[in-house]
Amino acid sequence: MDEIISEHNERMQNLKKYYPFFKIREISLDLFQEGKYNFIDMGYIVVASLRLFIEENNFNDTGVSFEKFSRFTTEILKRDYNLYLDEKENSLLVNYIFEKIINDGKPFSYNYFDPAQKKQMSSRIKLIESKILDNTIRYYITSEAIEFYLDTKEIKDESKISIQQILLSKMIESKNFKGGIEVVKRINNEVSKLMQRKNEILNILSYNVAEGIKEADELFNNSMKWFDEEQGLFDKNRKLIEIALERMEENESHNTEDFLKNREYIYNLETEIKRAISKHSALLNSSTDLKIKSDEIIKKVTLNKLRMSFDFKTVYQRTLLLDNASLLAYLMNPLLKIKFSKTFNLKNTDELLTYRPNNEEDIEEVTTYKETEYKSLDDIEEERIASNFIIFMNLLMKFILEKGQFSLREFNLYLAGKFKGDILKNGDYYSFILHIAQKNYYDLSKLDVDEKTIFDKIIINILTPENRYEFIGLKFRVIPMPEDVIEISSLFKITNIKFERVK
Known about the structure:
- The chain is an alpha+beta fold.
- It is built from 19 helices and 8 strands.
- Helix 2 crosses helix 3 (about 40-60), helix 9 (about 210-220) packs antiparallel against helix 11 (about 255-305) and helix 15 packs across helix 18.
- The termini are far apart.
- The model has no long low-confidence stretch (mean pLDDT about 75).
- This is Replicative DNA helicase.
């Protein structure tokens, strides 16, 4: 019971970093426009937003403006929920989401009973805080929000050391020096773990080179590549500690108990971070040593595998076991490339001198072979493009005859209906649009005379005897619409075009 009572308050303080996430999820979007967008997972939006703030605040060292948050959230709504809203509707939705994440600028708070003090206590926490810089409001993530984000997943794609140092920066700025010491200890543990991992990989290389190389590459790609960034964060945090100590000595009385306690925490924190920097430098030297030794082992093993002879029988048996006929190349290629040394036998000299050639030459029979036509990859590619262009142009002209006037956006929908949507993934289609936009006027009856481009030749091929009567008198204009951009995907956009039939 003593443990329950004494530790309960601390446990509640540790739990508070999870409260905003579940509170926002509970609110959801049921209350916005009668639940019209309640299919959006607010939990996902919160975690994604926290990652944005970590990237901008701590990696890029900049505040996040509301405009940047709006662009980021709009991209999520389009990519993950296919929500392509008009500007006003999108603005209302993004504003509502942002207000819920920042809780209208107020801290999230919840009450709990403290058995030690025998009364109700209130715990407060913010995910995002705001600052005014250059007459502009900028938003920053809090240390509690970073801790919550780190707890949601073991970081593998990014440096754990860098992430812990970001948390350390926040704790120094909020004067939580005792918590900062614990963070630096975790950094030291991570460095020690990487050092141990390096020794394990060297041991693996001694008996299994292939597996050792794989493990070494994974270590370098996932951990060692962050050295420069980690070193920069170490320097930044060491300066923050020095600044914190200077400010504390300037602003606080030297005789107070809080001053003495905080000064002790800062000195201990400074000692721990110096130890971490030293161990981190040793890790850098250790990783360099791993690279040199692994290269030496690989070179030695490679040389040992080179043989002066080739065992045809072993390769033949291995080919049978693997049931792979392509391995027969190792048997046949050496035989086909043999260079024979040709010699003349001196015993045949007499036969050479007594040789009587025939007066009449034998008629050489000439056999004619039918040449085989081969198509290069370029020829196959050009045939495919021409074939697709003919299909697209045929459908375009039919649509012009049917509608008279329409935009590229409407034509995309028309094609998507015919080809079940896959057409918007076809690169030949966008090449076709690029070609047809090179001219602003087409008169199919004059193409035979006014043939200027390869694209014109392709259109002429469409005018077969069967459909010449249908299309021969067709005239139309191609009018660009630069102010209207069609968003095909999050990575690809195309300017709209207007097609207009001319009588």
